[in-house]
Amino acid sequence: MKAKIELTTEALKAVIDEKHPSSLTRLSHEFGYKGSVSGSLAKKFRALLPGIDSMLQGTGTSSGKPEGNGKSKVTKNVTKDKTAKGANLAGAKGKYLRDSRNPYRPGSYATCYDILAHHQDGLAREKLIELLSRETGKDLKRASFDAQVVLSAHPNDDGLSNNDSPRHRSCRPGFWIKRTNNHVQLMT
């Protein structure tokens, strides 16, 4: 969008002194531009007023009030807080401590591995899914999907190493799962 006011050195200085914008984007808004400042407009600002960056740094509002027309815009923080769901992420405290042999980065697969490592004699598949669901905050259906990836590490039938047997593409090598009926056990 074209500027409503002609860009001159005097106009720039007047807007900086009067409105106290803290960035080039806010300065461009005062001249009628919308959105973030383009590279060509920033180049024009710097050509007209060479020390504009240092002038804008010292003009930020110190009262904590928003700049512009006085209307404050309330924004929500949309980032998901996975620890609120109970996910076992890095730094989050869970019931199952991180096993030193765990090949996964923190998340559902790592939590599943840690639950299996915690139960050295193994446990029923349904119990594993229930514990994984409780620990990650996922429903049973989604927890069973995560468990199935880790449980896809079957032993090799050809006499080869079981640690690199065929498995789901997201399942890391270095372990395998011993199955006896519905009982699963981590083997490293």
Describe the structure.
- This protein has 188 residues and is mainly α.
- It has two domains: 49 residues, no CATH class; 103 residues.
- It has eight helices and three strands; from the N terminus they run H-H-H-H-H-H-E-H-H-E-E.
- The protein has a three-stranded antiparallel beta sheet.
- Strand 2 and strand 3 form a beta hairpin.
- Helix 7 crosses helix 8.
- The radius of gyration is 29 Å and the shape is rod-shaped.
- It starts with 8 loop residues before the first helix and ends with a strand.
Biggest beta sheet attributes: 3 strands, antiparallel
Q: Structural class from helices and strands? A: mainly alpha
Multimer state: single chain
- Which sequence of strands runs across the widest sheet? 1-3-2
Order of helices and strands: HHHHHHEHHEE
Estimated helix fraction: 25-40%
- Could you tell me the radius of gyration in angstroms? 29 Å
